[in-house]
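re: that chain from earlier
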Amino acid sequence: MFRVLKPFFIVIICLKFIYPGYQANESTNPAEIINSKAKLLASDNFLGRGTGQLGGDLASEYLISELRKMGASGFQNQDITTQNIPFISYKFDESSLFTLHSGIEKFNFMQGKDYVLTNYGAEIFFPEPVGLVFAGYGISAPEYDYDDYFALDVEGKIVVVLSGEPLSENPAFFRGTQTTIYSNYDVKQRNALSKGAKGTIIIPNPFVDELFDWNKINLAYSFNEVSLASRPVVNFGMIINPLKAASLFTGAKYSLKEVYERYQKKRPVSFNLETKVSFISSTQQKTFLSPNIIAFHKGIDKELKDSYIIVSAHYDHLGVGVPIRGDSIYNGFTDNALGTAALLQLVNDFTNQKIQTKRSIIFLFTTAEEKGLLGALFYVNNPVVPLYKTVANLNIDGIAYFDEFEDVIAIGGEYSDLEVTLKNSAEKLNTGVSKIPPYFLIEESFNRSDQFIFASEGIPSIMIYEGLKFKNRSENDALMNIVNYFSEIYHTPFDDSSIEVNLNAIELHYNIIKQFVIDLANQSTEPEWRKGVEFNNAKRRNKAEKK
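^ sequence. v structure.
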């Protein structure tokens, strides 16, 4: 039986007692309001807003209450719209056993130390040894005349692949130094499944994952696996510690060292391995509901009001997990309490400032982003308006807080002409738009948040971050701040409200986002993907099928 959400009014009463700061914010400064609400959402009392945990329920009910207080409405002027999504949560049992079979020898691998599971559940179980096949990067990309699976039979086998994608300096081949969707782990796993594979083992590639840290990988996958209850049967997914990966190649045509050398020299190869693996799974599972939350702003143009822009932000974070230095609450102040608070402020401004736009706007607070973009995935499979009528997505996953800035970057801007709209909007606020720094390309930022799901369904999508030109800090300071953030703060309990913020930075970032949404909702032309971008096909399909 699905666990139902607690009545919101009970939670609100509790909040008033456990957090005295829960009261009306008297400030009219948007940055102060955003910062205040973000600190509330990131307080320990919200327990890290984990999907399937009490904190996630508290957060969703708080957001619904706030939206009602500001007078926002859902569709057709009704109450706030919610999509109560059924989920299944799996807890990995340490009695599960992953074994490598090499000839007559057997080697048992330890979860956490030797591998982490990316996909698992009660249905994943193969006690008899299964054959392994090495399939390069695990990519089939006909537009680049590239297929790691060419003449390779992987039916019923486990596919071993490298992370990343082919090294290139040619923009016409895998976008040169930029990344494509083919480097995404989920894309690799879905491709293997489409070829008939039983599962996927991913080896972090030292030539691609320069910032690889096994301890961080282990921590990231230490939380319960959460999936949509409606998911199809999934295949086995694993990331193996590179220190153990060489053993998979025992007796094979090439050793792992030789494979690395070939791929560094751009000489890909795919081949059968001589080893086999088995997996005896033991999991505990529960079912629950967690909502996407939707507010609606109706357009006024006779022809354009039936076309929609989605402005999204995920309100979940990691919840309560493995303690680090005695702290087990992963608060998620920057990721994404600030973004959630900014989206709340947008709804408030559009509602109470009586802002008029030609197109309609869907304000979407997604759940389970940290569990694999699942709230966004549910939405595109169950859209409140047809996807072919949705012309763009702006996703807010973080708000500037470091220092006042003079430029922004458009994550995903190179894929569509949304970047042109952003340049016009930013110019109105005396801010430039710069090229994406290489660090963000390495981090594959576009593929790792909800905008990726909307883009995969053909909807031009973008995220707006501050650039590296600051008023009071050098570019080197900014780069060091980014490096420190990802190494010491990101997805740890220390992403909390103790982080020092610059209110002027918050205000400018918010105003740019607000101006961009207004401009986008008022422009008469529909945003388009640029020529050759792989998301184009999905957009054409949606229009043809009126999906």
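The mean pLDDT is 89.
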